[in-house]
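Hi P.,

Sorry for the delay on this. The queue was packed all week, but I finally got your sequence through. Input first:
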Amino acid sequence: MIASASLATSAHAGELVQCSHADVADISISLGIRTGFGAALGCIKAPFAVDMTPCAPANGFGMSAGTGTAPLVGITHQWQGYMNHMGPVMGFRMDESSYDFSGMFVGFGKLTRQWDFHLSRITGKGVATVPGKAPVTYDCTSVRQRL
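Then the structure:
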């Protein structure tokens, strides 16, 4: 099932995580702060997460428009739901020990993995993996929203 609606931000709910590495731009993760299509979303802002709105429901997928500003155009909890989509898709899986984000592109029934970010909730270490590049390890911490 694919849902559709606009993206909203809640000022008081959810969690923020900041990930840092000395040599590359920081990564910001918001969990349950943004909502869309009737669901709380996990979102990642990272230098490798481009040409998409990198947000998805927990243990689901967010689909972005393939052109323009690439807004979120739908969500699904099943991989079959995004295989008919043409454009960027982000998967978000979470459990008691980790958060996993995956950026993909679907076109003509073919899935191409663009990037992955695995964050251990136990160690606070995050690893960004982009095909053709060396993995980058980040130090991550939960932060409090100040504004």
